[in-house]
Amino acid sequence: MVRITIREKAGYLSDAVFAASDGVVTTFAVVAGSAGASLDQSIVLILGFANLFADGFSMAAGNFLGSKSEMEYERVKGKNIDQQGTPFKHGIVTFIVFNLAGLLPLLPFLLPTSSPFMLSTILVGVSLFVVGMLRSVYTRKNIIKSGIEMFTIGGFAAFVAFAVGYLIENIVRG
After folding, report:
1. Cα(163)–Cα(115) distance, rounded to whole angstroms?
2. What is the 8-class DSSP label of residue 79?
3. Model pTM score
């Protein structure tokens, strides 16, 4: 039986928290920017899914290369490397969690609803809060503070995306 070290678990937790947060926030940024620009629902879906898979792959590849570089650096320095999981596993965790979390802001646009942006906003807010709460299970930090922290940071990013979409729409179409 393979034992996973505490450092390896922390590495996967870090991958998952970062990927979930970034997946929800960056995909919702596309949704919010599109809503701010009053783009059609089909365009929101096209841009959202293009972002979801491209950014998910980019993050996974970056995590893979970063993990691999760290292990190679430690080898060059003559350090005895604790197997912290393979770089490939870290990349896979990042890709899967990013795409699952990033799908959440797009779901309301796939459903028959009169206000997909409002539903997406609520779903993203709840998701960010829940990811923050789950993080606290491992970090032993206050569950509410952790949820609020994640919600606030992600919410600010969404506000910026909406504002930029709104401003650009008004500048372009004057």
Report:
1. 19
2. -
3. 0.84
Secondary structure of residue 105 in the 3-state scheme? coil
Q: What are phi and psi of 2, to 5 degrees?
A: -85, 130
Q: CB–CB of 141/60 below 8 Å?
A: no
Burial of 78 per CB tally in 10 Å (0-12, 13-18, 19+)? exposed
Count of CB atoms situated within 10 Å of the CB of 5: 12
- Dihedral angle of Cα 152, 18, 50, 115, to the nearest 10 degrees: -30
For a pLDDT cut of 90, what percent of the chain falls above it? Answer: 57
Both tokens of residue 132? 């923050």
Residue whose pair of structure tokens reads 């970056």 in the numeric block: 62
Scan for tokens 């970034």, then name that residue.
22
Q: Is the pLDDT of residue 3 over 60?
A: yes
The tokens for 146 are 């952790």
Q: Name residue, tokens 């032993």.
A: 140
Q: pLDDT, tens digit, for every residue of 94-111? A: 999 999 999 999 999 999
